Amino acid sequence: MEPSKVQSEGGLNVTLTIRLLMHGKEVGSIIGKKGETVKKMREESAARINISEGNCPERIVTITGPTDAIFKAFAMIAYKFEEDIINSMSNSPATSKPPVTLRLVVPASQCGSLIGKGGSKIKEMRESTGAQVQVAGDMLPNSTERAVTISGTPDAIIQCVKQICVVMLESPPKGATIPYRPKPASTPVIFSGGQVRADPLAASTANLSLLLQHQPLPAYTIQGQYAIPHPDQLTKLHQLAMQQTPFTPLGQTTPAFPGLDASPPASTHELTIPNDLIGCIIGRQGTKINEIRQMSGAQIKIANAMEGSSERQITITGTPANISLAQYLINARLTSEVTGMGTL
After folding, report:
1. Which residues pair with 269 in a beta bridge?
2. What is the average per-residue pLDDT within 77-97?
3. What is the DSSP string of 78-146?
4. Angle at Cα 285 formed by Cα 284 and Cα 291, nearest 5°?
5. pLDDT digits (tens, 9 = 90+) for 225-250
6. What distance lies between CA 107 and its chain's CA centroid?
């Protein structure tokens, strides 16, 4: 949530973006017949409400606007969900009304501030609003975001969202955020070892498929023109890379008998990247390249710019798993830069 401040007549007004994770049924309720409900919400709240495309069991609903507009949109969503609960209860024997539940998607780097020291902040939110708030322990697949679940009455939820927004504005995200993208329910797949398109991303996904050939699951989904590994495959590759890293992690000692070390030997791979794209791989103060090093377990060296050359050499050293994951992450960065897909 990157806040941008705009001066309004009533003083300082803040524009921000909140992402919600919803099931298909909930999204249907928000859209309404012929899109009438979401149209009404947009008009009455003056917030921008976007719903992610795709045949997915889960969808992302993005709400952007000044804080007042966001709270109005949230109130309308919470009351709509309560209405759905009341309607479903009229056809069931249940007597106690279940609470309304909303799931926010929040960059993991901001979750510490939401929880507070020793859980103090989240406890204060629960006590002052009457809503239940839970921050997921694990990140959502293939992202650096976590789900924050809020449940209670619509009024309690609205108060709680207001407090969460304040915390998030006071503690902006640190480093890069890889946004969560829900996995399609069924998409065309290319099985391991199959042919993929000859674009920069496919070059590394071809390597991924070699490593994942023993996996019975399909390795890639096709999103637009790019082959993207399934989140669970990427997680497996990350685990494989971590298990097989040939370098001794900090704080660990090498085995007393070198012959007993089961790590595969390190190999080296070289890439050339145009000078004008190197910045998106390095990131501000090296944040991106450090993330890629950490996630892949590979050693990555970027050569200094050579006079008269429009390209820079990148040397990746590690096991095949380390190298493939590093290549995939570098290509994902380049793809997001070239296609304008946003921060990856």
Report:
1. 316
2. 84
3. HHHHHHHHHHHHTTSS--SPPPEEEEEEEEHHHHHHHH-GGGHHHHHHHHHH--EEEE-SSPPTTSSEE
4. 80
5. 444 455 555 666 666 666 655 554 44
6. 7
